[in-house]
Amino acid sequence: MSALFNLSGKIALVTGANAGLGQGLAIGLAQAGAGVVAVGRSDPGETLARIKDQRRPAAYVKADLDSIAALDQTVDAAERALGPIDILVNNAGTIKRNDALDFTELEWDEVMNVNLKTAFFLAQTAAKRMIAAGRRGKIINIASLLSFQGGIRVASYTASKSGLAGLTKLLANEWAAKGVNVNAIAPGYFETSNTAPLRADEKRSREILARIPAGRWGVPSDLAGAAIFLASSASDYVHGITLPVDGGWLAR
Fold first, then answer.
1. What HEC string does the chain produce?
2. What is the pLDDT of residue 2?
3. Taking the model in full, what pTM does it have?
């Protein structure tokens, strides 16, 4: 049974792997045997060190994911570093908070460009290579509870994550028969920099915890199991899902 989840010999490209959820995802995939290329603006030194502690290959490709201009070059660099990409994790994201009445075009575009536009075109870039090589591939998009719910004061984030869940289904429809699985993970309330303002607000934090059946905020390592499942042969007949990892939030 363990062979179903074994990622030995696979190479994963993980965006935004320097900290938080991306770090947890990258380390989890390495624990299952994958080599990992971390892609993003910030040096993921701690992440790479922890992957190498697992005796797995690791590399860093510096890239500005606000723009799609250099995505081919980014994937080229990743493949030169460790080899052809078998697994893509579209994790990099950003968030802006403002009342909908005051939300600006800049706040809208900054979030949509990273969270949705780059995620789509990076998936396209990776899938083209996987399909052309006749190589089975796994693409995992990191969605959100706001792929299912509306939220407040995060208009562009909600739009981007709702759109990402929809794109996950569309890409699955188009690429499943070509050997590429496209699925998503929707993290719940996790201890990351994005949720720092919520955790600092005692009333809001208390309200959030009261709704989570697990009774705690998630930590990045809580995502590892879902990521390994969706990256491995165990999920070969799973296409187009958005899997919540939320401590039971959506069940309430």
1. CHHHHCCCCCEEEEECCCCHHHHHHHHHHHHCCCEEEEEECCCCHHHHHHHHHCCCCEEEEECCCCCCCCHHHHHHHHHHHHCCCCEEEECCCCCCCCCCCCCCHHHHHHHHHHHHHHHHHHHHHHHHHHHHCCCCEEEEEECCHHHCCCCCCCHHHHHHHHHHHHHHHHHHHHHHHHCEEEEEEEECCECCHHHHHHHHCHHHHHHHHHHCCCCCCECHHHHHHHHHHHHCHHHCCCCCCEEEECCCHHHC
2. 80
3. 0.97
What pLDDT is stored for residue 74 in this prediction? 98
Q: Please give the average per-residue pLDDT across 198-220, as a whole number.
A: 94
The strand pairing partners of 87, in sequence order, are 12, 138
Residues tagged active-site: 157
**CA–CA separation, 218 and 234 (whole Å):** 24
pLDDT of residue 195: 85
Question: What residues does each domain of the chain span?
Answer: 2-192+220-244
Local confidence band at 25 (pLDDT 50, 70, 90 cut-offs):
very high
User: Is the confidence at residue 1, as pLDDT, over 60?
Assistant: no
Q: Are 94 and 65 in contact (CB under 8 A)?
A: no
CATH of domain 2-192+220-244: 3.40.50.720
User: Angle at which helices 155-175 and 105-112 pack, to 10 degrees?
Assistant: 30
